[in-house]
């Protein structure tokens, strides 16, 4: 009996070793797939172009995936895993439920890549390429992405709930949070500039409109005309899923977002606070509102730094971004 168990265990260990790669952080680099799948970046870009033709907003939705993936145990596509009977994934976490979207765009890219080069490109790298493409195709800066990530074997709703910031967050909380990921105040402000494209739900701002910090009053740091507009869009007790634009040019990646913050027309509390609550973030908001090129350069730097986050845990190249190929040893032993 013991003998049979031991053999089973060793077999399992062997099986896992050939399917997954060990825990050392991978050396990411540009051109990682130049030999194994030279068309990879073009394939992803074409899928993003198609998705944007269907729905312009998908650029914003796809780009946001990088943030929500990389902050929770590194850029490992953990975000894309569907729940299983023994794993609550990240899709239903507080920040993601009814909010993250365009997962199907990543699926489409994965399918096209599996056709061209089966088993080669990780879902984690697809997110990174797709986020860059979404920015470029919305009129923002271009940059070379580092690749070579592996996909996680698991995901954690708990970790996502613990880490991802709320739209109520204030500047000092965000500065502290980002610093835990080796991201500076400048990185925080530049990366928040991603809200230059996309939309947010009334759900994310009703507290700001009607009961800021428990005062039963609106946030005073709002332009009165802008507040009137948001009051109409999001009446008290109205549908929380109605969406509004995160800045005045929601389909163009530009520095309008920062101009809006300077004139107290930020949509989210976590945006407006960068201008109103702390001198160290205000300085960059003002700077980027005046100099789009400086914003673009800082944004690229921030995206690359964020893309470098890794957990060091074992990984694999998933065949389907929603499902792990193999499961970690402890999960297999528990079943
Ligand atoms: C600084 C902390 C951040 C907070 C508190 C925050 C919060 C939010 C919230 C609440 C929404 C609207 C969600 C909804 O109402 O359903 C949103 C949308 C969005 N966020 Fe952030 N975010 C932050 C940083 C970032 C970063 C770093 C990125 C990417 C680099 C990003 C990209 C986006 C995009 C593109 C959208 C619009 C998505 C769409 O239209 O589908 N955000 N964010």
Automatic annotation (TrEMBL):
One of its GO terms (cellular component) is extracellular region. Ca(2+) 2 binds at residues 247, 249, 254. Heme b binds at residue 195. Residues 27-325 form the Plant heme peroxidase family profile domain. PROSITE patterns: PEROXIDASE_1, PEROXIDASE_2, PEROXIDASE_4. It is found in: Secreted. It is an enzyme of class 1 (oxidoreductase). Binds 1 heme b (iron(II)-protoporphyrin IX) group per subunit. Removal of H(2)O(2), oxidation of toxic reductants, biosynthesis and degradation of lignin, suberization, auxin catabolism, response to environmental stresses such as wounding, pathogen attack and oxidative stress. These functions might be dependent on each isozyme/isoform in each plant tissue. PANTHER family: PEROXIDASE 17, PEROXIDASE 72-RELATED. Belongs to the peroxidase family. Classical plant (class III) peroxidase subfamily. This is Peroxidase. It comes from Nelumbo nucifera. The gene is LOC104608654.
